[in-house]
Design brief:
This protein is mainly α. It has a single domain, classed as Alpha Horseshoe (Serine Threonine Protein Phosphatase 5, Tetratricopeptide repeat), CATH 1.25.40.340. The chain is about 65% helix and about 0% strand. The chain is built from nine helices and no strands. It is globular and about 45 Å long. InterPro entries: DhaK_L_YcgS, DhaL_dom, DhaL_dom_sf, Dihydroxyacetone_Kinase. Keywords: Kinase, Transferase.
């Protein structure tokens, strides 16, 4: 499916994606805690790390039979293990993504775009945030747009790569924004100058999808560089 000899975006990739997401969330756990401490409860990194460790344990116990099954399992684990807003939001995202994938054995570029759009729309429906509100939607929306605009329909990895690049930029672009949703909104103008932790974790997870497909060594992205 993907160019350059990359692995097909199939059930094996979906499992690698979840495992790589767990690895990179664990690696950036303290950064996410620090980002959330500045404008939220300070528990985003801890909660996400706990949720993805539970996903890995479930993968070890009961490997999924399809891409959709992997995404649905991730949704169930995040909803049950992750506290705060992140569990329901990410859980809904993975659940909607699983529905969008359906019975596809592997994903091409349109399927990647549809999966990401469904995930983003699930987050919007659950959290009611819009672009510019300084939330994870500010990473998901450019990711969806970039995936939909990527070139060759058969190249799912290109769509994923475009989405990850756009999500990383979207996360960086939350820094000057004033939060209009969630606990960060209580700070008003004081929320400006900080990255949104949900947008950063989104960018980490989408980059993990690329790493899982492209055969790159683990290491993820460099993160935000903002520990404030």
């Amino acid at each position: 499916m993907a160019a350059g000899g990359a692995a097909a975006l199939d059930k094996a990739w979906a499992e690698r994606w979840l495992r790589e997401s767990a690895r990179v969330i664990g690696e950036h756990r303290e950064e996410l805690i620090d980002l959330d401490r500045a404008i939220g409860d300070g528990d985003h990194g801890e909660n996400m790390d706990r949720g993805f460790r539970a996903i890995v344990a479930k993968l070890d116990e009961d490997p999924p039979e399809s891409v959709a099954a992997a995404l649905k399992m991730a949704a169930m684990m995040l909803m049950s293990k992750v506290g705060g807003a992140a569990g329901p939001l990410y859980g809904t995202a993975y659940l909607r993504a699983a529905t969008a994938v359906g019975d596809a054995a592997a994903l091409d570029a349109p399927a990647v775009a549809a999966m990401l759009a469904a995930a983003r729309d699930g987050i919007v429906s659950r959290g009611k945030a819009q672009p510019g509100d300084k939330t994870m939607v500010d990473a998901w929306t450019p990711a969806v747009e970039a995936a939909g605009a990527s070139g060759e329909p058969s190249d799912g990895l290109a769509a994923l790569g475009a989405a990850a690049d756009a999500a990383e930029q979207g996360a960086q672009d939350t820094k000057p924004l004033v939060a209009r949703k969630g606990r960060a909104s209580y700070l008003g103008e004081r929320s400006a100058g900080h990255l949104d932790p949900g947008a950063v974790s989104t960018s980490l997870i989408l980059r993990a999808a690329v790493t899982a497909a492209s055969g790159q060594e683990g290491g993820g992205q460099g993160g935000s560089g903002d520990g404030a």
